[in-house]
Amino acid sequence: MNDVVQRMLSDVHDLSSSIKARAAEIEAARRLPDDLVQALRSIGVFRMYVPRSHGGLELDIASAMQVVTALSRIDSSIGWLAGIGSTAPLFATRLPRDVYDEMYRDGPDVILAGAVQPTGTLEETPDGWRATGRWAFASGCMHADWMFSTGIVTAHGKPVSERNGAGGPPLMRGMMLPAGAWRIEDTWHVAGLEGTGSHHISLTDALVPANHLFDHFNGESCVAGPLFQTVPHLLAPMGSAMMVGMAEGALDAIVALAKAGHQQFRVATTMRDSEIFQCEIGRVEAELRAARALHEAQVRILWQRALEGTLKDDALYTQATQSAVWVANTCVRVADACFALGGGAAIYDGSPLQRRLRDLHVAAQHAAVHPRHYVSAGKGLLNG
């Protein structure tokens, strides 16, 4: 671990108590307070995946994810926004260099938010490209400087094929615009991760300069470095970094309850002295250690492949996603078990156990870790 990462983790630790004390405030506001956004900027969270050529930290994958896990352990919503906010700059590397330079001309702490579902359209008109659409789950949009989304390219209102002919998947492109160009719709009334402000964003017949379009699947990076070879391969693993931290927070909460001497109704001993409780908490910790171990092993593989220049590989993407799905489901089981162990004390709004339960179930609903991704891994195994 280098000095920069040690300093960042120390700064995160120093924020821990004040963040935990504001958990209810963050959930009630359904967004991160401005002073905490500024604190994350100061720590360097939003510059972790920004190249050194533009003032960023350009951390290795494991270091960046370690910071995100530490924040997620303190508060799920803050950890989620740190993970999204630190990874989103990778999308910007698919823009032309002049636009990328413009985005970072005032420094590396630019906050990006967006959504990758192709729930909008892009059509070339005589006066330029026009975008219309509505995109869900734009985490961090309330404090973003720039935002992006993905649209299906159309001609005369009909989708254009990726193969420039009839049939085949539609051609899709991302679009990047200053935050002020977007409408934010107040839609984030949800079961968990309430503090992330992941509202819908929308555009209606908005003008998008041609050099603000990008291809995050197949486009080349406008900056050099092992980190910037591909975008999709790093998305699901960052989700694992968040979820491991959230699950660690759940385990911390049940251990704290037991150490405080809590004794459940009609139980002969305190939780701490119950062998049944000790057995179950030991099993839960083993599951969490397994999840962290798989996540860290996968991250080491990704970074090694990045250093070798072979990160952009379909089989590696399938493996990384497969691992992330398993980690997500394991972390949900950890949160479920911790909540159950907490008994009646866990159901109150003031309990972190119910909050972690809700947060992890919502996080595991993300498309990047849906169990359907096991299909690709299974096909590869059977056809190999």
Automatic annotation (TrEMBL):
It comes from the Bacteria. It is an enzyme of class 1 (oxidoreductase). Coiled coil: none annotated. Residues 240-370 form the Acyl-CoA dehydrogenase C-terminal domain. GO terms for molecular function: 3-hydroxy-9,10-secoandrosta-1,3,5(10)-triene-9,17-dione monooxygenase activity; acyl-CoA dehydrogenase activity; flavin adenine dinucleotide binding. Residues 17-86 form the Acyl-CoA dehydrogenase/oxidase N-terminal domain. Signal peptide: none annotated. Its EC number is 1.14.14.12. Keywords: Monooxygenase, Oxidoreductase. InterPro entries: Acyl-CoA_DH_C, Acyl-CoA_Oxase/DH_mid-dom_sf, AcylCo_DH-like_C, AcylCoA_DH/ox_N, AcylCoA_DH/ox_N_sf, AcylCoA_DH/oxidase_NM_dom_sf. This is Flavin-dependent monooxygenase, oxygenase subunit HsaA. The gene is hsaA_3.
